Amino acid sequence: MTNNDLLPPPRRRTLFGRLRGSFLTGLVVILPISLTLWLIWAAIGWIDGWVLPFVPAPYRPHAYIGHDVRGLGVIIFLVFTVLVGWMAKGLIGRSLIAWGESLVDRMPIVRSIYGGTKQIAETVFAQTETSFDRACLVQYPRPGLWAVGFVSTNAKGEIAARVPVEGKLLSVFLPTTPNPTSGFLLFVPESDVILLDMKIEDAAKLVISAGLVYPNPKDPRLPVPK
What we know:
By secondary structure, the chain is an alpha+beta fold.
């Protein structure tokens, strides 16, 4: 008699178990797609509700077909934004913007709101020197504990001059879980930073999922092959 004869026979999945497994598998496939489509549909409706009231009633589709066309406000917003950007690049547009900002600077409360909003917009949408360089590991909040961070750039100016370290000083953004848009700005010596080979997107997924989604799809317990 072998050891296999002593083992109990494997339990066969019931019909309810197979149906439950199929349902969960389908839910994993459908839920992200449905949520994405719902967010896009809701965003289009929100933009339409914000833009269409500025369109005169005789020029809206409601006057011809009895209802508004969803997405028309998005198209108007895109065209208007492109035209404003094109005009802002010219001499007349820059002059008008400078004149408008000079007026805003004279308004105590308005200038604070405008200045903060403009700084956030320039930081988010600027295309130069604003993207993260690489994903990394740093010891935080104490030595021996490691956290995933993103290297933005080398520390410059007074920060780099006053920190007593040998070698480069890196600016590292340490995101929080599960909301990576908030976090901490750390200035870490380059020798204390371990650069990772994974992409920025993969590291972001790792942070958002609280360690459940790894960049290695085969076996998350194994390191990514070099």
